Amino acid sequence: MTAYTSYDQNVAKLEVRLVQQNNNRQRLAIIDQLASHYIYTDIQKAQALLKEQQGILEQYNYPDFKLNFHLNTAIVENQLYNYFLAEIHFVQAVDLLEERGAIKQQAEAYIDYAGTCMNLGKMDAATQLLKKAEKHLQLFPDEYLQARLVCREAYLNLHYSNYARAVELLLTADKQLTDLGSDLNIKDYYFLTLIHSGLGRIYGHNDEREQSIKSYLNVVNMCETMGMHSRLSWHYLNVGIACMSMNDIENAEVYFDKAIKIKDDVSQHARATAYSHLGYCNFQKRNFSKALLLYEKAEHLYKEKSPKDFHSFSILECWKGQLYADLGQRQQAIKHFQTSYAYAEIIDDYRQLSEVCKNFATFYAEQSEFKTAYEYLMEHDRMDELHSDQVNKRQRLELEVKYEAEKKEREAEKLKLEATKLQLKALRAQMNPHFMFNALNSIQHYITSNEVTLAAKYLSKFARLMRRSLEYSEQEIISLEQEIEFLKDYLEVNAKLRFGDRLDYQVSVDDEIEEDIFGVPTMIIQPYVENSIEHGLRPRENGLIKILFELEDDDTVVCIIQDNGVGRKRARELQSKSESYKKHKSMGTAITEKRLEILNVDNADRDFVRIIDLEDPETGDALGTRVEVRIPIIDLQLKQIAQEV
Questions:
Q1: Terminus of the chain with fewer CB atoms < 10 Å: N or C?
Q2: Domain boundaries, the chain
Q3: What's the whole-model pTM score?
């Protein structure tokens, strides 16, 4: 916690600087830093700062601060349980981020937004956001964000009651963060509270009560030490309920009382639940009048803030029924038990219905009304069976969801493995032996003809081509600039060493394309160029191949390879007759098309490669072939920035 102490001291210094600062631009920068702290520690201060920030941003256009305003406001609204408002700000923030292209910030926003989606019950949306974040982090790794991502994935599994997977992920996230040592910031500690709160919930579900209390106390200690009070009411409540489960009534009362008194957590639902449980503690201690008073307070808060929380109402009414039964007030006890049953029936809460029937049976047995007691006991058994069926049905659905998720993961891993294998196959297929033999043969001819300068020049080019081929085989992505340089060397070697100046070529790039920044899959174009040379241009005396790179959209570059060759029909005829043509198999293009399909798995319905036969409009004679290849691009500059941040 020493790192946090220095961080807290820095916050105090920022407060002093803010008071002394009159320049709006500088105030924005200070507010930005302070708000990112107070959104987890002091919601009221955060709201005041964000209000001032909003006022300044209405006068001046500072996109970076506007982005952070929406992100911080979204988190504040989420902390205040205003999930719909939080989503509005997250949507605006994500729009700005995707427009400005800050990759690591995008990943972080997706992870945060996913939490709000879970709170809204939008599990599919949360899943998609986490997939986006995961995709970004695969390209631009970040240990802190990776741990937060794993934490969110754990909560998704927790929602689907996949407790085994959830606990595995939570423990992984905990280790990932704690292994980072003293460099954690306030947000990392916030995620640690989520991790231990989730563990406490799972341990409680598995009846590992001591472990559950230990986890919840870890959360409380972190929150108290670091001043993170916005959800502290719930954390106190969790400790109290865990203590109750172990019949530790004294400590349970302490934490329920804390849950009620904490001011920074605005959750009235948490306070209502604390009042009801504190009432039950007093009931067990035979303090009936105090218990009733606390029950009434709980009911008032529930009706004010959660009027449709029928589960909580049912529990509260059942506890009231028990209390009046102990007081010997028969009609009041029956009335509250019946109300409890009615509330549980509204939501088909068979577990609670079973509990109410059990209390009814006990009540009538104590009244010596054994026939009625037996009937309620039978009803208890029936409801218990319905609850078991309900649980089994939910577990089947959860298993189906789990199976589908794991199936998709396996498919994704299979695709990655297949992509790697295909890449290696493609690289092996790119430099066919026929090309290499002719090139080396030509170099040998220069040497034997005593044309040393030309021999040295083309030997150097050939060696560079081979070196790059081996070097790039280790890389999944290279810059478009590197791809073009490789193609030029390949074409130069072909033109001079194989075709003796019977081949000419042109390579041009759209002005909108920044060759050194745009990344493309390694050596993705060469197989199509080779195919054009081998099948279209080899029979011609004056072959010409043009290669043009154009920007289609923010994510795609189109490469157009156009030749004045004999055309595909004539090439097939020659291939069927000529042994030399038969020796060249177009494996590279088939493999490359498969690579493009895998790389564009999210856009499977698009045509990644389009081949057009060029013909004379009057005679129908072949004028060559045009190939259009759509290539997914990555901004290498953003990748570099992300790795350095």
A1: C
A2: 431-644
A3: 0.64
